[in-house]
Amino acid sequence: MLPHERSLVKELKGRPFAIVGVNSDSKEKLKQLVKDGTTTWRNFTNEQSYGKISTKWGVRGWPTLYLIDHNGVIKHKGLRGEEMEKAIKEMVAEAEAAKGS
């Protein structure tokens, strides 16, 4: 999954798109993932499966993906692969259209 996320970051650079990670890994593990280039986007640490962020958002398994639009509305949860990529590209196009209005 991480290679796909990295490719989306590269492909959509300069467009209204961002990945924000919330990880159950320790701070040390997360620092290593950033240092070695595994993740190239902003990350927060939950430090446990039942931390504050995952509890508030109702995360039951890892990874759980939320697609949030340019207005801050959750549009999709749990999409993967081509279905996720299609939804992201549609949301980016909507954000660009709204910006141009």
Automatic annotation (TrEMBL):
It comes from the Bacteria. InterPro entries: AhpC/TSA, Thioredoxin-like_sf, Thioredoxin_ResA/DsbE_sf. It holds the Pfam family AhpC-TSA. Transmembrane segments: none annotated. One of its GO terms (molecular function) is oxidoreductase activity. CDD domains: TlpA_like_family. It comes from Oceaniferula marina. The lineage of its organism: Bacteria, Pseudomonadati, Verrucomicrobiota, Verrucomicrobiia, Verrucomicrobiales. This is TlpA family protein disulfide reductase. Residues 6-76 form the Alkyl hydroperoxide reductase subunit C/ Thiol specific antioxidant domain.
